[in-house]
TrEMBL record:
GO biological process, one term: regulation of mitotic cell cycle
Pfam (any one): CDK5RAP3
PANTHER family for this protein: CDK5 REGULATORY SUBUNIT-ASSOCIATED PROTEIN 3 (PTHR14894)
InterPro entries membership: CDK5RAP3
Annotated protein name in UniProt: CDK5RAP3-like protein
């Protein structure tokens, strides 16, 4: 039986040492004093490569102290006297620590506790940190790819909007205000297209009158009628009041970079004071006749062309839809070519002006849709609103700023993911080094404890159990 090895479970090693009276119950109190001695002694160490390696990043325990003393025997040999003792305070300090450790086998209790801590906490925690860092690397790679793609899409979207609006994106407010200079030419072209619909309007009016003889015929397209009559010069004032204005005071849209850093817009009304109570007082004394255009001057919205003002634009598009639907209906009727229809058509005393070919009807529909399409262009709609609505330029500028920032935001997030990925790679490398240090410390402790116990019992002693779950 005496030749059989002694197997000690790693989780029960400390209790085993105390129960067999190798260590005392008060060992922790004595360790506290020893740790203080180590903390003091370590402040005064000679320059030595072996010592530096021994002390680097590891918990200093008894077996380290024993190695330190062996190294100091060489570095402090000049202080050895004729009696074999050392005059060096360094050597005295570390020898005192060694003696304190060996008294009542305090070192074995500390080594057993350190062994258990490495098995249950330090090594598993380091492995979990490595696993987390590896997961972070995968997540960062995925996010970086997603952000890079979103950044690319945002860049394309931003550049496409710049291209659509024909601006460079250097100064949104200034560039859009400059673009409004193209509005008069656009309105002139649209006005000409609408005037070109006069035959369509006349045809529709005549057709309604033919089908409802003797009845007063209302105008289904009053705004289009007015544009055909007046052209681009038709203002909202004239359309509302039935007479041309004596003067037109359009809101001015000017870019004034000197105002402040925020690129404020000057709408050209220097007389207006936007400062609180003064504004209220000014409004209170305005003459009702002036507000209603009774003085004959077109101001504000009423100074705009009916093609610019949002409300009359809506009315115009509604009237164009009436024309389109009506002519499309007539086209479908004319396209139906049954014998009965031919017979009925022969009996009708339809005026020659109402006898229009299918090709002509089709051409009219195309002309109507062409006008509708011009107003459907987002860039044109935006410019018209900028010119018609004071302050809308700020909304547009903010919209484009957000689009620009969206691109930059995803670029920053992509770069941040790359940085986090690099940090996670470093964390994995650091964690693996820490695991290697901890595992080597565990192996050294295991071998040293087994060696000491084997010497005490004159039998082979082995530490088994949970320890092998963390050893390679």
């Amino acid at each position: 039986m005496d030749s059989l090895p002694i197997d000690i479970h790693s989780g029960k090693l400390l209790n085993w040492l105390i129960s067999r009276r190798h260590c005392k119950d008060d060992w922790q109190e004595r360790i506290t004093s020893i740790r203080g001695q180590i903390g003091h002694a370590i402040k005064d160490m000679p320059e030595d490569e072996q010592l530096a390696k021994l002390l680097q990043g590891s918990y200093i325990h008894y077996f380290n102290v024993r190695n330190i003393v062996d190294i100091l025997k060489d570095t402090e040999k000049d202080s050895k006297n004729m009696f074999g003792s050392y005059a060096s305070q360094r050597m005295k300090d570390w020898q005192a620590i060694l003696s304190a450790y060996e008294k009542d086998n305090v070192y074995l209790a500390e080594a057993a506790q350190l062994l258990q801590r490495l098995i249950q906490y330090d090594i598993p925690a380091a492995n979990r940190a490595i696993t987390k860092a590896e997961k972070d690397i995968e997540d960062c790679i995925t996010r970086q790819e997603e952000y890079a793609k979103q950044s690319e899409n945002a860049t394309k979207e931003y550049e496409l909007e710049l291209e659509k609006n024909q601006i460079k994106g250097e100064n949104f407010r200034k560039e859009f205000i400059e673009k409004t200079a193209s509005i008069p030419a656009f309105l002139e072209g649209v006005s000409g297209d609408i005037v070109g619909l006069k035959d369509v309007v006349a045809y529709l009016r005549g057709f309604v009158a033919f089908n409802r003889p003797g009845k007063e015929q209302p105008s289904y397209t009053p705004l289009i009628d007015a544009i055909i009559s007046k052209g681009t010069d038709l203002t909202v004032f004239e359309f509302r009041h039935g007479k041309p204005p004596t003067a037109i005071e359009r809101p001015k849209l000017e870019y004034v970079p000197e105002v402040n850093e925020n690129d404020e817009i000057d709408f050209g009304d220097d007389e207006i004071d936007f400062g609180g109570d003064d504004v209220i007082a000014e409004i209170a004394v305005l003459d009702e006749e002036v507000l209603s255009g009774g003085d004959g001057v077109a101001r504000g919205d009423e100074a705009l062309s009916v093609l610019e003002f949002p409300a009359t634009q809506v009315q115009l598009l509604g009237e164009l839809e009436i024309l389109e639907v009506s002519i499309a209906h007539r086209f479908e009727q004319e396209k139906t070519d049954f014998d009965g229809d031919v017979y009925i058509a022969a009996l009708e005393k339809r005026p020659d002006a109402l006898r229009v070919s299918q090709d002509q009807l089709k051409a009219w529909i195309a002309s109507i849709k062409a006008v509708q399409q011009k107003f459907a262009d987002p860039a044109i709609k935006r410019l018209l609103k900028i010119a018609a609505i004071p302050g809308f330029i700020e909304t547009v500028a903010e919209e484009f700023e957000r689009l620009k920032q969206k691109e930059q935001k995803y670029k920053r997030l992509s770069d941040l993911s790359v940085t986090k990925q690099a940090d996670a790679v470093k964390a994995v490398e650091s964690g693996r080094k820490q695991v290697d240090v901890n595992v080597q410390t565990l192996i050294d402790l295991k071998e040293s404890i087994e060696k000491d116990l084997t010497a005490k019992y004159k039998r082979e002693c082995n530490i088994i159990g949970e320890i092998y779950s963390v050893l390679p």
